[in-house]
């Protein structure tokens, strides 16, 4: 039972890490978070590094929310 719960949590964490926030470029939330930790502090820097936000732009708000959470 405990092992199953642990496996479920690991799958959930893996899914969260692979959550795509920019469908135009396939950029994951985890990738954006990593860039923020490394010092990317605005949308332009995230866009330059990943291409996210350079297509339809609908992911802009998601990236801005991540930037504001840091
Ligand atoms: S979803 Fe990111 S540019 Fe379209």
Describe this structure as you would to a colleague:
This protein is mainly alpha-helical. The chain is built from 4 helices and 2 strands, in the order αββααα. The protein has helices at 2-17, 29-37, 43-50, 60-69; strands at 20-22, 27-28. The longest helix is centred in the first third of the chain and has 16 residues, at 2-17. It binds FE2/S2 (inorganic) cluster. FE2/S2 (inorganic) cluster is lined by residues 22-24, 52-59.
Keywords:
70 residues; mainly alpha; Arc Repressor Mutant, subunit A; two-stranded antiparallel sheet; 4 helices; 61% helix; binds FE2/S2 (inorganic) cluster
Q: What is the radius of gyration computed over CA atoms, rounded to a whole number of angstroms? A: 14 Å
Strand order of the largest sheet: 1-2
Average pLDDT level: 92
Shape: elongated
Share in β-strands? 5-15%
Which compounds are bound in this model?
FE2/S2 (inorganic) cluster
Q: Provide the number of structural domains.
A: 1
Order of helices and strands: HEEHHH
Please write the CATH class name.
Mainly Alpha
Here the CATH topology equals Arc Repressor Mutant, subunit A
The end-to-end span amounts to 36 Å
Structural class: mainly alpha
Main sheet summary: 2 strands, antiparallel
- Helix content estimate: 55-70%
What is the fold's blueprint, element by element?
Layout: H1 2-17, E1 20-22, E2 27-28, H2 29-37, H3 43-50, H4 60-69
Antiparallel strand pairs: 1-2
Bound molecules: FE2/S2 (inorganic) cluster (FES).
Tell me briefly what this model is.
The chain has helices spanning 2-17, 29-37, 43-50, 60-69, and strands at 20-22, 27-28. It has 70 residues and is mainly alpha-helical. It has a two-stranded antiparallel sheet.
């Amino acid at each position: 039972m405990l092992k199953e719960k642990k496996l479920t949590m690991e799958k959930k964490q893996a899914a969260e890490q692979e959550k795509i926030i920019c469908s135009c470029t396939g950029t994951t939330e985890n990738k954006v978070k990593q860039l923020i930790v490394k010092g990317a502090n605005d949308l332009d820097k995230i866009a330059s590094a990943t291409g996210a936000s350079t297509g339809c732009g609908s992911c802009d708000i998601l990236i801005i929310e991540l930037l504001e959470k840091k």
